[in-house]
């Protein structure tokens, strides 16, 4: 090996490897976040939604006036939960770890450089209060109000669909409800044994159900449902149910009734895939004056969707638009946590699902706002 001498010119060009930490800094967290960072627009929308929820927060913490240890402010708890979705943080423990050293997270949540992050178990317990008061649902609706004020929502044309959410429970937890015999009681040896939701349930998450759809394997699952408006593809309704063959249609009825209540006189259409082509569902839509733009299923049977509806121009447009609803599910499973949700119980799973759809709407609205600015004269 040949050694090359270091000249004085090399020393002049080479930067000094020194580290000097100042005792004080004159910078704020705001100074560390780039002016064009995507979270800036999202944070503005989040803060506006939280401001509108002030009365709800006051009711949530009325009992704390009597005394007790201070809890996490909901104005910080909800943005932290939102970050967990936006940055694919898999657990509260990891979220608190990243908040310790991530200045962007501290800025978004509203913690100063000197504030200590919360204990993960305390963070998890405080989320229960949000479930009791449906705070995440209210937050979801407040975000939608901002979209409505900007004329981004359609009140006439909608699409609906459902997706499977794998539960945080395994096959071995699926045991007989009555205890069963010793050979099958622990759930370890289940091959060749008949099992159903009528006779068995998960000891880990009793709200989950063994379910399969299409060519997928049977897993313990929940089912998430969304209602999308067709103008810009924003999710206007989200809910979680137990997984069964009727859940998609029953959830669709509930969500479209809400859309009808918000627009009692106008014409409303609902697009959906072939799984919704059932006589009772089509009749339920017609009873509330909703035009069923449901894909016809004529595989060995007659479709419940009238042929005159299927031949209309609006039907063809709805069938094209409804496919965009899959974008929300795809984003929620690839970026968000709903592929296999790390929560147990239908209420906690529902909270995660609704927060994920709120995060998806915020990302979508931020993009829509940028497109409008670029297109402005």
Please give a structural write-up.
With 377 residues, the chain is α/β, with parallel strands linked by helices. It folds into two domains: 29-133, no CATH class; 154-189 and 197-347, Nucleotidyltransferase, domain 5. The protein is 45% helix and 13% strand. It contains 15 helices and eight strands. The protein has helices at 8-13, 29-32, 38-52, 54-60, 74-86, 92-101, 103-109, 120-132, 135-149, 247-262, 279-287, 307-310, 313-321, 325-334, 346-375, and strands at 157-166, 174-176, 200-202, 209-211, 219-229, 235-242, 268-272, 290-294. Strands 1, 4, 5, 6, 7 and 8 form a six-stranded mixed beta sheet that branches. A hairpin with a 5-residue loop joins strand 5 (219-229) and strand 6 (235-242). Helix 6 packs across helix 7, helix 6 crosses helix 8 and helix 9 (135-149) runs parallel beside helix 15. The chain starts with 7 loop residues before the first helix and ends with a helix.
Name some characteristics of this structure.
single chain; two-stranded antiparallel ribbon; 13% strand; globular; alpha/beta; 377 residues; Nucleotidyltransferase, domain 5
Q: Could you give me the name of the CATH homologous superfamily of the largest domain?
A: Ribonuclease H-like superfamily/Ribonuclease H
The CATH topology label of the largest domain is Nucleotidyltransferase, domain 5
CATH class of the largest domain, anyone?
A: Alpha Beta
Task: Identify the overall geometry.
Answer: globular
Summarize model confidence as the mean pLDDT.
86
- For the report, how would you describe the main beta sheet? 6 strands, mixed
Helix content: 40-55%
The termini sit apart by 65 Å
Q: How many DSSP-defined strands?
A: 8
Beta content = 5-15%
Which radius of gyration do the C-alpha atoms yield? Answer: 26 Å
Number of helices: 15
Order of helices and strands: HHHHHHHHHEEEEEEHEHEHHHH
Helix/strand structural class? alpha/beta
Show unreliable segments. none
Write the CATH architecture name of the largest domain. Answer: 2-Layer Sandwich
Domains, number? 2
């Amino acid at each position: 090996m040949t050694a090359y001498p270091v000249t004085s010119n090399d020393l002049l060009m080479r930067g000094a490897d020194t580290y000097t930490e100042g005792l004080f800094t004159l910078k704020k967290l705001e100074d560390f976040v780039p002016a064009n960072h995507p979270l800036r627009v999202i944070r503005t929308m989040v803060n506006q939604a939280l401001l509108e929820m002030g009365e709800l927060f006051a009711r949530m913490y009325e009992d704390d006036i009597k005394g007790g240890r201070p809890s996490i402010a909901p104005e910080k708890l909800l943005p932290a939960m939102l970050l967990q979705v936006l940055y694919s943080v898999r657990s509260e423990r990891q979220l608190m770890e990243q908040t310790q050293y991530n200045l962007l997270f501290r800025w978004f949540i509203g913690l100063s450089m000197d504030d200590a992050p919360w204990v993960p178990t305390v963070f998890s317990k405080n989320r229960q209060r949000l479930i009791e008061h449906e705070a995440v649902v209210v937050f979801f609706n407040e975000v939608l109000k901002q979209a409505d004020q900007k004329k981004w929502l359609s009140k006439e044309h909608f699409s609906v669909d459902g997706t499977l959410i794998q539960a945080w429970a395994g096959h071995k937890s699926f045991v007989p409800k009555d205890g069963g015999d010793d050979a099958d009681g622990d759930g370890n040896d289940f091959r060749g044994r008949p099992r159903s939701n009528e006779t068995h349930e998960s000891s880990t998450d009793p709200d989950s159900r063994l379910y399969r759809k299409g060519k997928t394997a049977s897993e313990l699952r929940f089912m998430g449902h969304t209602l999308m408006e067709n103008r810009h593809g924003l999710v206007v309704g989200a809910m979680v149910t137990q997984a069964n063959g009727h859940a998609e249609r029953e959830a669709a009825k509930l969500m479209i009734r809400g859309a009808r209540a918000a627009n009692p006189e106008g014409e409303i259409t609902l697009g959906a895939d072939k799984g919704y082509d059932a006589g009772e569902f089509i009749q339920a839509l017609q009873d509330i004056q909703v035009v069923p733009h449901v894909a016809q299923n004529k595989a060995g049977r007659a479709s419940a969707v009238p042929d005159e509806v299927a031949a209309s121009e609006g039907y063809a447009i709805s069938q094209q638009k409804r496919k965009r609803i899959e974008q929300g599910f795809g984003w929620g499973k690839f970026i968000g946590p709903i592929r296999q949700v790390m929560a147990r119980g239908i209420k906690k799973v529902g909270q995660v699902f609704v927060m994920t759809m709120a995060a998806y709407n915020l990302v979508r609205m931020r993009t829509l706002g940028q497109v409008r600015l670029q297109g402005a004269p």
